[in-house]
């Protein structure tokens, strides 16, 4: 059995799909975790393995043989705080725990801008930021080689590969394209110096390699 598989959790999401494509284009063995068989063909066409699992159930079997995990699932803006608890908090923590049990080497988490200090965020999304904060904390205090990416508001514009990690002052400028988040995931995956880092991400003017260069 292969043991150098990269599990993408939330593969059918907008960032997830872009991430799977970037990884497969480089020949990385990918296991795409989805919850609906009708979503499988897109991933199979890319040469990715597919695993069907629900984040609200036991999804530990998806971790068998995985060396790397990328968590980019989310409850989405149209669900209630019950799903914020079950997906953004509890499923993320379960994924971290499963990764530990299965000797996963690397864990890349898509968190959110503002997760480091939810008290400073908008009141409206505070429960979401608290969920992201707690999941980030569990990962940061685990034994996993983690990278935590905290993007600003996600937009669907074409990525330019230009970002910044300093939060813009104006809230309206605190955004980043999903393309560029996927590119940062891919960069982090390929660069060990990103291990142990937690960074906010926004559209900016620096190439990813410059913005994320080691200190
Ligand atoms: N929206 C923003 O402005 C923003 C800002 C900062 C960070 N983020 C974070 O960015 C990440 C991804 O963003 P995105 O735009 O790619 O999101 P997305 O398109 O909504 O993708 C989320 C994925 O999670 C999957 N998922 C949800 N519940 C599940 C369950 N019970 N079992 C299995 N899979 C489940 C969804 O599956 P289906 O495809 O089957 O629905 C979907 O594929 C999330 O972690 C989000 O919190 C978002």
Tell me what you see in this structure.
- By secondary structure, this protein is an alpha/beta fold.
- The protein has a single domain (5-211), classed as 3-Layer(aba) Sandwich (Rossmann fold), CATH 3.40.50.720.
- 33% of the residues lie in helices and 23% in strands.
- Helix 1 (14-25) crosses helix 5 (178-190).
- Bound molecules: NADP nicotinamide-adenine-dinucleotide phosphate (NAP).
- NADP nicotinamide-adenine-dinucleotide phosphate (NAP) binds at residues 10, 12-16, 35-36, 54-56, 72-74, 76, 87-88, 110, 112, 151, 153-154, 178.
Helical fraction: 25-40%
CATH topology: Rossmann fold
What's the architecture, going by CATH? Answer: 3-Layer(aba) Sandwich
Which geometry do the CA atoms define?
globular
Major sheet description: 9 strands, mixed
Keywords:
single chain; 215 residues; nine-stranded mixed β-sheet; 6 helices; 11 strands
């Amino acid at each position: 059995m292969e043991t150098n598989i990269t599990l993408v959790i939330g593969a059918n999401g907008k960032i997830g799909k872009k991430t799977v494509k970037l990884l497969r284009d480089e020949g990385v063995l990918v296991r795409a975790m989805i919850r609906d068989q009708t979503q499988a063909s897109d991933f199979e066409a890319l040469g990715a393995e597919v695993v069907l699992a629900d984040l609200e159930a036991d999804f530990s079997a998806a971790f068998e043989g995985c060396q790397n995990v990328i968590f980019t699932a989310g409850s989405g803006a149209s669900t209630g705080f019950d799903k914020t608890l079950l997906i953004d908090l509890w499923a993320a923590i379960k994924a971290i725990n499963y990764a530990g049990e299965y000797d996963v080497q690397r864990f890349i988490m898509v968190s959110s801008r503002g997760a480091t200090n939810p008290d400073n965020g908008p009141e409206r999304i505070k429960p979401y930021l608290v969920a992201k904060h707690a999941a980030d904390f569990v990962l940061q205090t685990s034994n996993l080689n983690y990278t935590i990416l905290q993007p600003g508001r996600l937009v669907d514009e074409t990525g330019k590969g230009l970002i910044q990690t300093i939060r813009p002052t104006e809230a309206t400028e605190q955004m980043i394209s999903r393309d560029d988040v996927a590119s940062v995931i891919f960069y982090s995956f390929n660069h060990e110096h990103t291990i142990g880092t937690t960074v906010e991400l926004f559209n900016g003017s620096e190439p990813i390699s410059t913005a994320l260069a080691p200190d």
